[in-house]
Amino acid sequence: MSQFILHKENTRGHANHGWLNAHHSFSFANYYNPERMHFGVLRVLNDDLIDGGMGFGSHPHDNMEIITIPLAGAIAHKDSMGSSAIIKYGEIQVMSAGTGVSHSEYNANADEQLNLLQIWLFPNRKNVTPRYDQQSIDVAASHNNFQQILSPNADDAGVWIHQDAWFSLGNFDEGFETEYKIKKAGNGVYAFVISGEVTINGQVLSKRDGLGVWDTDSISFKANTAGAEVLLMDVPMELN
Amino acid sequence: MQTTILYIGRDTEITVVMNRLLNARPEWKGICVCTDEEAAEICETQQINLVLLGNGIDAECEKALRTKLTELRPGLKIIQHYGGGSGLLYGEIMTAIS
């Protein structure tokens, strides 16, 4: 029998720092909710709005798989591995922090707000060599299709990470129905609605709602509105 | 009452950041070191409430550290700190001490 947890948009943690307006699906920084610590290895899902030209100065990370998906605008990234890049809407960035890396992230545009999702997964191996990658997402291929944008395999579609996790992104026409099969036994799926309204396993979800489902091998999906956009995070439920 | 937290990690830069973060809250006292020897010495001489294992500690060292520190302070809580910064720190510590 499948189990689920529903996180409505307005129950997320919220921190408004002026230049940064952040919503946290799970406990992060000063937002602490013991009921919202993680979904399997998914530990952080932040929905950040960053003012033009503003951002996070150089700061360190270790032992975490950090995935960034811009929803609007562009990020200027620099790190201690020598990577320097702009990541814009339609791209995905991944950083394996491993033994330790420092990076900065700024809104690359002075006059445009940046909206990004930042997602942290616990790694399946500690103290790996830090690495960085970014790729373009074929937006057309995600029309009425959960297109894979992340996996554990370097030779598979999308970026890869040190975890048995698969991310898929789709945007859907109203009324489109499909089923998503979980990639690995023991994994669950956390669905995050970027826009529109959808129904997953009978639960109606609106913009920025999240639904975690586990103890199942698939989920049913229906788009209730045109242009519904959903990110599926298929992750191990057991912490390593 | 102040909670005294010992952080052990191999990366000097992260250790400096952790020292700043842990000592920024009046309810916490942070002591941050890079070597297992320093960690053992501090555990021996100071009342530590919680140990955070940071980056770069391999499995063998982690096992030896856990054994040594709990010999010195039976019942000492030792947890893994992930992320190397402020994002997860508060939640990890609150979960461990609550």
* H/E topology pattern of chain B: EHEHEHEH
Compute the gyration radius of chain B: what is it? 12 Å
Portion in beta strands of chain B: 15-25%
Count of helix runs of chain B: 4
Task: Write up this protein.
- The complex is a heterodimer of chains A (240) and B (98).
- With 240 residues, chain A is an all-beta fold.
- Chain A has no helices and 22 strands.
- Chain A folds into 2 domains: 125 residues, Sandwich (Jelly Rolls); 98 residues, Jelly Rolls (Sandwich).
- In chain A, the strands form 4 sheets. In chain A, strands 1-20-17-22-15-13-14 form a 7-stranded mixed β-sheet, with no helix packed on it.
- Chain A starts with a strand and ends with a strand.
- In chain B, β1, α1 and β2 form a beta-alpha-beta unit.
- The two termini of chain B are 13 Å apart.
- In chain B, α2 runs parallel beside α3.
- The radius of gyration of chain B is 12 Å and the shape is globular.
- Chain B is α/β, with parallel strands linked by helices and 98 residues long.
Q: How would you describe this structure in keywords?
A:
heterodimer; A: mainly beta; Jelly Rolls; seven-stranded mixed beta sheet; 22 strands; 54% strand; B: 98 residues; alpha/beta; four-stranded parallel beta sheet; 4 helices; 48% helix; 20% strand
Give a summary of the structure in a few sentences.
The complex is a heterodimer of chains A (240) and B (98). Chain A has 240 residues and is mainly beta. In chain A, 0% of the residues lie in helices and 54% in strands.
How do the helices and strands line up, and which of them pair or pack?
The complex is a heterodimer of chains A (240) and B (98).
Chain A: E1 3-7, E2 13-16, E3 20-24, E4 42-50, E5 55-61, E6 65-72, E7 74-79, E8 84-88, E9 91-96, E10 101-107, E11 114-121, E12 131-136, E13 147-151, E14 159-160, E15 166-172, E16 177-181, E17 187-195, E18 198-200, E19 203-205, E20 210-214, E21 218-223, E22 228-236
Parallel strand pairs in A: 13-14
Antiparallel strand pairs in A: 1-20, 2-3, 3-4, 4-11, 5-10, 6-9, 6-11, 7-8, 7-10, 9-12, 13-15, 15-22, 16-21, 17-20, 17-22, 18-19, 18-21
Chain B: E1 3-8, H1 12-22, E2 28-33, H2 36-45, E3 50-53, H3 59-72, E4 77-80, H4 86-97
Parallel strand pairs in B: 1-2, 1-3, 3-4
Helix pairs in contact in B: 2-3
